[in-house]
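Researcher: We plan to redesign the surface later, but first we want a full-length starting point. Tokens attached.
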């Protein structure tokens, strides 16, 4: 019992240190062709899985606090105020304090909670041999990937090709990617790799939790101020946010799924998930 508590304390301290290092150095981001994908949520998800949702929520709070510090004192982007109650108060008044507290902390805390229950649910469904539910889960993930790619590619190609060609390419790539993912997940499930799949879905869900709650919060709470900060029309905010969700969100989710599955399997040799 004492060794167990010591192990959890050490692991909590380790994940906290990793979050802080990632947040204040370039290590928290993966440079891609057009964006930097964040991976700061990965130690939060791992903490949720191996330490439980309570400590996961603490790690999520730590993630949110680093975001608050970075956006308050560095403010490298025009939209930094959405993560900083201090800056938000100057932009939209006192109400901005509460709005930014929500966007900065609540989504990150949920990243430390939701993946744990997703892992437990998916593992149970797959382990119990409930093939129908396994198929439904795989189909949902595949459809999500397809739709996200179609939306993103359509936005990227709309100024470079005529409308019909743009839609044809977007649909072809999106559907092909979705079918490929479904086949891979189905084959993995037949090989009884339920733990790997459950870990991957936990990573996927954790990343999307961060993206969806943050971006939806910005749209609902800061639509006009966000548009003004980016220098775009208010009507364009929805398309901008959908573009971020469909591209940044998908890439970050895929990266999280791969890393969580790989690192998770290694850590389970030391401490199985309860």
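Model: Full-length starting sequence:
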């Amino acid at each position: 019992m004492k060794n167990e508590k010591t192990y959890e304390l050490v692991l909590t301290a380790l994940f906290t240190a990793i979050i802080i290092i990632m947040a204040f150095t370039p290590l928290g981001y993966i440079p891609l062709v057009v964006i930097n994908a964040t991976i700061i949520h990965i130690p939060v998800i791992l903490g949720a899985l191996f330490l439980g949702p309570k400590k996961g929520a603490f790690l999520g709070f730590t993630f949110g606090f680093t975001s608050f510090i970075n956006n308050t004192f560095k403010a490298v982007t025009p939209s930094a105020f959405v993560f900083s109650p201090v800056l938000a108060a100057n932009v939209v008044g006192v109400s901005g304090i509460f709005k930014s507290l929500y966007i900065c902390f609540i989504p990150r805390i949920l990243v430390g909670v939701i993946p744990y229950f997703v892992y437990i649910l998916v593992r149970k469904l797959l382990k119990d041999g409930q093939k129908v539910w396994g198929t439904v889960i795989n189909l949902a993930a595949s459809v999500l990937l397809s739709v996200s790619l179609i939306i993103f590619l359509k936005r990227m190609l709309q100024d470079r090709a005529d409308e019909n060609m743009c839609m044809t390419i977007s649909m072809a790539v999106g559907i092909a990617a979705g079918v490929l993912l479904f086949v891979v997940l189905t084959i993995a499930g037949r090989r009884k790799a339920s733990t790997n799949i459950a870990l991957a879905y936990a990573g996927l869900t954790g990343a999307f939790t961060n993206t969806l709650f943050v971006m939806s919060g910005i749209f609902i709470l800061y639509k006009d101020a966000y548009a003004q900060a980016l220098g775009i029309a208010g009507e364009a905010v929805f398309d901008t946010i959908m573009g971020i969700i469909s591209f940044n969100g998908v890439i970050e989710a895929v990266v999280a799924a791969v890393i969580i599955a790989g690192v998770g399997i290694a850590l389970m040799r030391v401490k199985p998930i309860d």
